[in-house]
Amino acid sequence: MRKLFTWNIVMDEQIFIADNGVQVKYKHKSNKYDFNHIIFVFSGFNNMLPGKYDFIQALDNCPCDVIWINDDFEGMYSYYLCINMDFKVESAVIELMNYYLKDKKLSWNNVTVTGFSKGGSAALYYGLKLNISNIVVTVPQIYIGDYIANHWEVPAKHMMGLDYSKTKIHYLNNLIPNLLKNDNNLKRNIYLLTSESD
Fold first, then answer.
1. What does each C-alpha distance from 94 to 43, 58, 150 come to in angstroms?
2. Cβ burial 157-193 (10 Å sphere, 16+ → b, else e)
3. Per mean pLDDT, which range of 39-43, 140-144, 165-169, 190-194 is the poorest?
4. Which pLDDT score, from 0 to 100, does residue 3 have?
5. Higher pLDDT, residue 194 or 125
6. In three state form, how does the secondary structure of the chain look?
7. 94-120: pLDDT as tens digits
8. Longest alpha-carbon distance in the chain
9. Any idea what the Cα angle at residue 152 is, between residues 151 and 156, rounded to 5°?
10. Residue 134 pLDDT exceeds 50
11. Which long-range contacts (CB under 8 A, 24 or more apart) does 94-100 make?
12. Could you give the CA distance from residue 74 to residue 166 in angstroms, rounded to a whole number?
């Protein structure tokens, strides 16, 4: 059963309904040639409200499939991970990605994940977790818990709960470092763009 439907014809935004009921908003540009690759794009912050898609114009002429995933889950940012420490968002995002890989008869070797800032954190997280071959990220936050607790109060409460503790901050802080410590894929391409101030 196809679990996709068009949400906004003008913007070509669609919604994927995961098995756990989570709705994933996204945009999809089909490949222009017989090109066996998919790019998944994760977005950064857009002031206080979600809804932004990064790199739309930059990747519009890309020859392969491009899927821009919106970090709008129950009306707020989630780093594509969790709501109140329930990682149902992560499960839904992975299900969407698997759906397109199966549909295109591709493997994780035929995937690139990319993103800027918060989107870079998500791209790095999913790239490492799913053993994706190509990861391109710009200024990602590695210690997610500290970053949202110090800079984004509303997303912090959305992700960790209203009365979140240091334990929850610590848990989110360790997600990416733990994946990096355990990563032994020497054939993976990871491109990190950053600066001293980051």
1. 16, 24, 28
2. bbbbeeebeeebbeebbebbeeeeeeeeeeeeebeee
3. 190-194
4. 54
5. 125
6. CCCEEEEECCCCEEEEECCCCCEEEEEEECCCCCCCCEEEEECCCCCCCCCCCCCHHHHCCCCCEEEEECCCECCECCCCCCECCECHHHHHHHHHHHHHHHHHCCCHHHEEEEEECHHHHHHHHHHHHCCCCEEEEECCCCCHHHHHHHHCHHHHHHHHCCCCCHHHHHHHHHHHHHHHHCCCCCCCEEEEECCCCC
7. 999 999 999 999 999 999 999 999 999
8. 51
9. 125
10. yes
11. 94/126, 94/130, 95/16, 95/18, 95/19, 96/16, 96/18, 96/24, 96/26, 96/67, 96/69, 97/40, 97/67, 97/126, 97/130, 99/3, 99/16, 100/28, 100/38, 100/65, 100/67
12. 24
Task: Kindly list the distances between the CA atom of residue 131 and the CA atoms of 13, 30, 126, in Å, as whole numbers in the listed order.
Answer: 27, 23, 8
Q: Mean pLDDT of all residues in the chain?
A: 90
Average pLDDT over residues 25-42: 90
Rounded Cα distance, 196 and 117, in Å: 15
How sure is the predictor about 197, in pLDDT bands with cuts at 50, 70 and 90? low
Strands 38-42 and 111-116: parallel
CA distances from 126 to 8, 50, 91, 115, 122 (A): 27, 20, 11, 11, 6
